[in-house]
Amino acid sequence: MSLNDDPNRVIIFDTTLRDGEQSPGASMNLDEKLRIAELLAELGVDVIEAGFPIASNGDFEAVQEVSKLVKGPIICGLARSGRADIERAAEALAPAERRRIHTFIATSPLHMKYKLQMEPDDVHAAVIDSVAHARRFTDDVDWSPEDGSRTDPDFLCRCVEAAIRAGATCINLPDTVGYALPEEFGGLIRMLRERVPNSDKAIFSAHCHNDLGLAVANSLAAVEAGARQVECTINGLGERAGNAALEEIVMALRTRHDLMPYTTAIDTSVITRVSKLVSTITGFTVQPNKAIVGANAFAHEAGIHQDGVLKHAGTYEIMTPESVGLARSTLVMGKHSGRHAFREKIRELGYDLGENALQDAFRRFKDLADKKKDIFDEDIAALVDDAVIRRNDRIRFVSLQVICGSVGPQTATLELDIDGDRRATEATGDGPVDATFNAIKGLYPHTAGLKLYQVHAVTEGTDAQAEVTVRLEEEGKTVNGQGADTDTLVASARAYVNALNKLLVKREKTAPQAMIA
């Protein structure tokens, strides 16, 4: 998009694969990143920030593969102001049809003094050099003043003017620590557009964190003040309290078009699907009362609400479930459903599986149908995500038997496939979950500590699938794993094994200093 396009068009810059992955525990492997990137393209995002190429070989490979395979959106890579960062990003982005380098340096007094240990004049010089160097590789350069909302206004204007003069086509203002209030943040965007002489030569952007719960409000205030790009993530995923949630920004613009006459290219019917995929891959369960994509977002329990919705949905719903992809299916699945019906259901839910993945998912569906009378769409989505996302795991769950009760010891007999080698063991523990996890440690020794164990039901009923989240930590690195099964202990084992596989990926990543924008 250029400055000559629709002045009311807002560019959606998705950074789930970069800033979202910086959430403690949210590590993704290459296959998972590609699946999310492909669905983001289907969603209609304008820019995908695919990673931070210099951070690790895994990040470099992810940006490179997304650049090769994903068509439509601009593919972006993050770089600090150093030339090595910029050149590494340019190399990773080389295969992309359209590429962007996003370079940044901190500009607040606090960051310059204590983190960078640089004088303002040196930071100003680094801005010019980094943007000019990035322009050698692409004519689409995004520049960010890290901690911009706490930067001296005069120095901020000076740096922004220099970045645009050096060739930046987009100026992104980060509220890095989620400190700003909406009126204040909108005022910063307005101030830059009014005071910087060459501000008309660049698109202004907002990147807001949610430490005070204001990321979406600040982003919308920025749009009202003239920003025409918003950096955001699916489900608001991100470090600390997260980033501005893509789905909330988009649906706010769509729902309140009367007061905010701005448009995006987002196909909102894909929102629920991409939300579920990101949740499954990262292991970050969406809270029930989360706006737009939470389980309760369109649920009505109060009698007066139910009565009103039955008479006219608009009484208590400001948007339809269908508008975000929550249309209910008329194709009921059960133990007698065949492969063809299952394939159609999978397509209806928005999945496009290869033959091997389809067969694996169908086998698990049949196993589930033998245990569970009513098969809900959520059940099928859970088992399909599990079948597809885990297909490249080095450690695979095979079987589990547990002896438990009020009289101990509790014993778990476990079988895993590790790098193609099937192994079995028996372990005891203080309860069935502890015994199961001890068995996993026996088959795959490691030093990671269990930091979170969480269970919730995918659907209602005593035969509902349990969805378990496990968080492991090893040497300061955290990962989340998820698993689903009608047996809570089997789901627990699957979640723990999934977390271990993610830990193997995360061990290869070493974040460079001061990478956060």
Given the helix and strand composition, which structural class is it?
A: alpha/beta
| CATH topology category name of the largest domain | TIM Barrel
Helix content range: 25-40%
Distance from N terminus to C terminus (CA atoms, Å) equals: 23 Å
Number of helices: 16
CATH A-level architecture of the largest domain: Alpha-Beta Barrel
Note the quaternary state here. single chain
Tally of structural domains: 4
Spatial strand arrangement across the major sheet: 1-2-3-4-5-6-7-8
What is the CA-based Rg, rounded?
A: 24 Å
By DSSP, the count of extended strands is 14
Q: Which CATH C-level class of the largest domain is it?
A: Alpha Beta
What does this protein structure show overall?
The protein folds into four domains: 11-282, Aldolase class I (TIM Barrel, Alpha-Beta Barrel), CATH 3.20.20; 298-326, no CATH class; 327-389; 395-506, 2-Layer Sandwich (Double Stranded RNA Binding Domain). It is 39% helix and 19% strand. The protein is built from 16 helices and 14 strands. A hairpin with a 2-residue loop joins β13 and β14 (477-485). The protein is globular and about 75 Å long.
